Amino acid sequence: MYRYETHMHTCQGSACGSSTGAEQVRFYKERGYQGIFITDHFFGGNTAAPRSGKWKDRVDWYCSGFEDAWNEGQKIGLDVFFGIEQNFEGDEYLIYGLDKQFLLEHEEMERWSRREQYEQVHAAGGCVIQAHPFRMRGYLSAIHICDRVVDGIEVANAGNTPAQDAYAARYAKSRGLYTIAGSDNHHAGAKTVLYGVGLEKRLDSAADFVQHILSRQPRTLLCPAGRFDADPTAEPLLPAYLLDEDDQFVPLPMDWLE
After folding, report:
1. Please, which pLDDT band fits residue 179 given cuts at 50, 70 and 90?
2. Is 52 exposed, middle or buried (0-12, 13-18, 19+ CB in 10 A)?
3. Is the confidence at residue 12, as pLDDT, over 90?
4. Please, which pLDDT band fits residue 191 given cuts at 50, 70 and 90?
5. Residues in Cβ contact with 78 at an 8 Å cutoff, skipping those fewer than 6 apart
6. Could you tell me the strand order of the sheet in which 196-199 lies?
7. What are phi and psi of 222, to 5 degrees?
8. Residue by residue, what is the 3-state secondary structure of the chain?
9. Which residues, including other chains, have CB under 8 Å from residue 160's CB and lie 6 or more apart?
């Protein structure tokens, strides 16, 4: 089985990161991973790139963590793929299948709506996964669930509590959603247990992973045993909303918890 990290950050691309791309690559290589997806925070989130200035300069800065990781991966034999994490109102999305050239050619993308993001990413051959959909933090006032504009959800995230992941797993099962796991790793060496997905076939490119997701191929969720066994209701939900067919947020139906 080939082990892949699907969700991680560098200090070059994410303001909340503390490790360079090269440091992350060496960390994952030592722990037996075949590859990683660098998913630094894009311009709607906690990016390390400038908030203003020339688009090319901002994109160059944003991609520097991935490029550092890719160069190191070439040296020591770890596969490094490009990804993005974009934020809207606390709801965040992992995007796979784009590249730096796409970013350079689409300055309008930091102003996309959730649906525009989904449609444009698909048109470019990529896919979208909602990250840690039931995460609850002091800086969040609500949960936004957006099934209609994603290809799946991240049900196991090492930065979540077991209850938050149990909410996600129950919801995904009830709605038939494709699921992945990720460490959300910002600091090489800080996490003692790493998440991700296990695949039977080695990925040649990010496009391979996109097709794996879109065709709903089997994968192993890399996370602790019993991760989804917690009683989610022990951690009461924030106000929760669902994006409807008119792209409006309505109260999230709770039938999936019954």
Report:
1. very high
2. exposed
3. yes
4. confident
5. 25, 28, 29, 33, 34, 35, 36, 72
6. 179-182, 153-157, 127-131, 92-96, 79-87, 35-38, 2-5, 196-199, 220-222
7. -90, 105
8. CEEEECCECCCCCECCCCCCHHHHHHHHHHCCCCEEEECCECCCCCECCCCCCCHHHHHHHHHHHHHHHHHHHHHHCCEEEEEEEEECCCCEEEEECCCHHHHHHCHHHHHCCHHHHHHHHHHCCCEEEEECCCCCCCCCCCEEECHHHCCCEEEEECCCCHHHHHHHHHHHHHHCCCEEEECCECCCCCCCCCCEEEECCCCCCHHHHHHHHHCCCCCEEECCCCCCCCCHHHCCCCCEEEECCCCCEEECCCHHHC
9. 132, 134, 135, 168
Chain segment 130-176, per-residue pLDDT in tens: 999 999 999 999 999 999 999 999 999 999 999 999 999 999 999 99
Residue 258 has pLDDT above 80, yes or no: no
Which pair of structure tokens corresponds to residue 75? 């040296």
Whether the Cβ atoms of residue 156 and residue 195 lie closer than 8 Å to each other = yes
Residue type at 98? Answer: L
Q: Which two tokens stand for residue 102?
A: 């796409």
192 band by pLDDT with thresholds 50, 70 and 90? confident
Distance CA 201, CA 39 (A): 22
Please check whether residue 193 is in contact with residue 158, taking contact to mean a CB–CB distance below 8 angstroms.
yes
